[in-house]
Design a protein that fits this description.
Blueprint (H helix, E strand, L loop, with lengths): L2 H11 L1 H11 L3 H6 L5 H15 L2 E6 L7 H20 L5 E4 L10 H18 L5 E4 L7 H13 L4 E6 L5 H5 L8 E5 L13 H16 L2 H5 L3 E5 L3 H13 L8 E5 L4 H9 L4 E7 L4 H10 L4 H7 L6 H10 L1 E2 L2 E2 L1 H11 L1
Parallel strand pairs: 1-2, 1-8, 2-3, 3-4, 4-5, 5-6, 6-7, 7-8
Antiparallel strand pairs: 9-10
Helix pairs in contact: 1-13, 4-5, 5-6, 6-7, 9-11, 15-16
């Protein structure tokens, strides 16, 4: 883990930093780039719009992590269960994501398990389409507890899934027993390396292992077992290779998916859907956005520029608007600069 990433995690966990920064920065451009909606009703409406407009599904995530207050954990659970219910009512995939530290892990493992069971039962009761409670992978200090929680839920025949990181050498072993079960794995590159002994170094090695793991996830045996692969990546080269692997191994378009963060590469999301590829968007909602956004900064330092730009004086608005006409970020127009210009000119 780099010094930058360690700092980002520390700031994400800092109550003082959140107390000072969140009201000052408010829902600035950085927050709005990744988080769109404050209430569960708004989030479900957004999921409906994505589905009806482009055939894109969503995974709803109630903002909050590193929580050591049981009352706050209860709020996360109730909001997530409510999201599952509403998604089912509207005939959408009942797909929700949770962080173990948001549902009580920092209080006790027992509370975390009990709350995870409640969410999983809510998903099972309202299930439509590809429905799971997806366990997010936070920083690596909670890797083992998250895996243990997954196996606990699966042992009860609950619709549980997990996020695994291609960066880690151990992921192949963690993945192997899951390929024989009707569960799902969201494979991501991973943002917080431990060191050469534990993980692949650099983008090239990580991407190579990502595709190696993808080939196992897309094996005929995994498909026969009812395994559902999900690939969380904004890397078009990786995604195209994954799609080739799926087609070569006889996987149908609705038997696997590519997942994006909300607000990232929206044009390419629609391009993939037009090509028949299943696309899901990770859609956070709520007001406690500080830890989530700080993790986005930890993963990509460039995101810090969105904070700086959003606080620029009005005099810079015209320059930003002109620059937005020239720049393309992640293969599409940088809507960030456009939005800042609009805010400053208003």
């Amino acid at each position: 883990m780099t010094a930058w990433q360690r700092t980002a995690i520390a700031i994400a966990r800092s109550r003082m930093a959140k107390t000072l920064a969140q009201p000052v920065i408010g829902r600035t451009l950085l927050a709005r780039r990744f988080i769109a909606y404050g209430t569960v009703n708004d989030a479900v409406s957004a999921a409906r719009a994505l589905h009806s407009g482009a055939g894109i599904t969503a995974s709803l995530f109630y903002l909050g992590e590193y929580i050591d207050d049981p009352a706050r954990a209860e709020e996360t659970v109730s909001q997530t269960c409510r999201a599952a219910s509403l998604l089912g009512v509207h005939g959408l995939d009942v797909h929700v994501s949770i962080d173990p530290t948001a549902i009580g892990y920092l209080t006790s493992a027992k509370l975390c398990r009990r709350n995870a069971e409640r969410v999983a039962h809510a998903v099972a009761s309202n299930a439509r389409g590809h429905s799971w409670v997806m366990l997010d992978m936070e920083d690596l200090s909670v890797l083992e507890p998250t895996l243990a929680l997954l196996h606990h839920l699966l042992a009860q025949d609950l619709p549980a899934a997990i996020t695994l990181q291609a960066r880690l050498r151990r992921t192949r072993d963690d993945l192997a027993p899951l390929l024989e079960k009707p569960t799902s794995v969201r494979l991501v590159k991973g943002a917080f390396p431990l060191g050469p002994e534990h993980d692949y170094q650099g983008s090239t090695e990580t991407s190579r292992n990502f595709l190696s793991l993808a080939s196992v996830m897309l094996s005929p045996a995994a498909r026969k077992a009812g395994f559902y692969p999900s690939f969380g990546t904004h890397d078009d080269v990786l995604a195209r290779e994954v799609i080739k692997l799926a087609r070569a191994n006889g996987w149908q378009p609705d038997q696997y998916e590519i997942e994006f963060l909300y607000g990232v590469r929206t044009l390419w999301q629609r391009e993939l859907r037009n090509d028949g590829v299943a696309v899901r968007v990770y859609l956070p909602f709520g007001t406690d956005w500080w830890p989530y956004v700080m993790r986005r900064i930890g993963e990509n330092p460039r995101n810090l520029l969105l904070v700086t730009r959003s606080l620029l004086p009005r005099a810079g608005a015209a320059r930003l608007a002109a620059r937005a006409d020239r720049r393309r970020v992640d293969g599409e127009r940088d809507d960030a600069d456009v939005e800042i210009a609009r805010q400053r000119q208003a």
